[in-house]
Structures are given as structure tokens and as C-alpha cells.
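Quick one before lunch.
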Amino acid sequence: KAHGRGRHKFFAPSMDEPIRAREAAERDLRAAIEAGDQLSVAYQPQYSAITGEIVGAEALVRWQHPERGQMPPAAFIPIAEETGLIEPLGEWVMAEACKAAKDWPIQTISINVSPVQLRNPHFGYRAIGIISDAGIDPARVELEITETALIDSATQFAVNLRLLRAFGIRIALDDFGTGYSSFSHLREFEVDRVKIDRTFVDKISVDAGGSALIRAIIDLARSTGLQTTAEGVETDEQKSFLQDIGCNELQGFFMAYPMPASEIGKLLEGKSSP
Ligand code: C2E
Ligand code: CA
Ligand code: CA
Ligand code: CA
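Model of the calcium ion complex:
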């Protein structure tokens, strides 16, 4: 970087590199989706704040790249969204998660849905098809959507949402509090739950204002009849505070990391259905 002015052109060839890396990532991801064996789903338990029992699990996609190893979703979900690969990928995750959770003694399986998927007018029907094929009660399936989806594609989203809800599927607003005018969206679109973003959980006890803010979010959500889940719970203190202020469910590394299906299956052995 310490080169002088006028040498700019020498950097031109390397400017292609991010593009080539992206093309390679797209090609590899496409192959991974077709082959299936590099992809898996990890499940992070969700706990009742009252009983401490596991009541749900969030499905999180994992990609073991043959050369580059474990790829974080943050590195490939955006590529999948830009290329449209998020549709087959998201549908694969949904099918896997519904089949895996069908016989688990938990109420809910939570599945992330990209705004790109929600923009497709056929999404609602396809999701219903996948859930029916898996044989799981649709009332046990919760789709996690972000506020971006509501803003980007409000009309199409509303059509899909109505259909999904008519089928009994539940909707959670993910990363709640990070977007714009979140509470107005809660009124506009019927959702069942808000997942309070971990940036708010991080602020608990850092300062009184941080604790007051999360308390206000939970009070407001409750007064609207919504369930609340706090994500990113990392300390005992955060857990206790969230229990005290009436948050319904807790999720985070303090209780459990995302784990393979076989592991959560073992963890749930002997548990009775909620
Ligand atoms: P998200 O939906 O907000 O998922 C929660 C993320 O927070 C997960 O990261 C999880 O491992 C992490 N997490 C859980 N507890 C804690 C904690 O206590 N502390 C911290 N620091 N992190 C915690 P992950 O698995 O890397 O996923 C990142 C994001 O990628 C997800 O954020 C979601 O937006 C996206 N994603 C993952 N799987 C899928 C998928 O199947 N479809 C779509 N569309 N997006 C997905
Ligand atoms: Ca999520
Ligand atoms: Ca989230
Ligand atoms: Ca997120």
C-alpha cells in the first residue's frame, strides 16, 4: 500500500481477485448444494425462562468446505442471497430441520428465512409443501424473518405471511431492535414472537440505560401479546435479569452452543414433550 501515485494501474489485475474469489465461492456452494454431503444443520437449544427446560431449537446451516474447512454462514449466506442459491439452500435446511425435529420432545423448531426467499411469490406454497412432506405439525414450525424482509418486499411478504399463518406456521421477527420503526411493523404484520437482538442483551448491566431499554422492549412486546426470546445470552447475570423481567425464552452460549442433530437428540432423551 506504500506505493506512490501513478502506480495505481499495477493494482488493476488484483482488483479482480475478490470477484474471482466470489465466483469460486458461488461455484463451490452450488456444488455443495447439489452434492449435499458438505452441508449440515446445527441446532441451538432454546430454553423456557421459567422452567429452564428446552422448549425449542434454532436450525443453523453449516458448510464444511473440502479445502477451506468450516465456513461461517456470514461468509456464504450473502453470496447465496445474491445468486439465488439461498432458495435451494433454505429449502434444504427447512426439510432437514423439520424431519429432524419431528420426533424431538420440543414445541418448536425455528428456521431462518431470507428476505430473498420471502420475495418469491411461491415461497408460501413451497414451505407448506416441505413441512407437509416432513410430517411435522405446522404449529411447531416457526420461521425467523428479519425486518429487512418487511421493508424490502412488504406486499409479497404479506401474501406469503397470510398463507403461512393460515396453515398454522408461526412467525418470529429476528434481530429485533436493530432495524427501523420495529414496533410499527409489529402492528402492521402479525408476528407471534420477537427475538431480541444480542446487542441489547450485551448491554444488560453495562449501564442502567441498557437494562432499562431491554425491559421496555419486553414490556412492550408483552403488552402486544407477543412471545419474547432473548438471543446471545452469555452470562448468568444476563440470564437472571431476563428471567426477572419476564422474557419467555432464552438462547445463547451460556446455556448451549449450536450442536449436531445427534447431540441435541441425546440431550433431549428422556425428556417429555412440553
Ligand atoms: P441469527 O439468525 O441471528 O442466528 C444466531 C447466531 O448467533 C448464530 O450464528 C449463533 O451461533 C450465534 N449465537 C448464538 N448464541 C450466541 C451467543 O451467546 N453469543 C454470540 N456471540 N453468538 C451467539 P451463526 O450460526 O454463525 O449464524 C449467523 C447468521 O447466519 C444467523 O444469524 C442467520 O442470520 C444466518 N443463518 C444461519 N443459518 C441460516 C439459514 O439456514 N438460512 C438463512 N437464511 N440464514 C441463516
Ligand atoms: Ca435467527
Ligand atoms: Ca438473530
Ligand atoms: Ca442475524
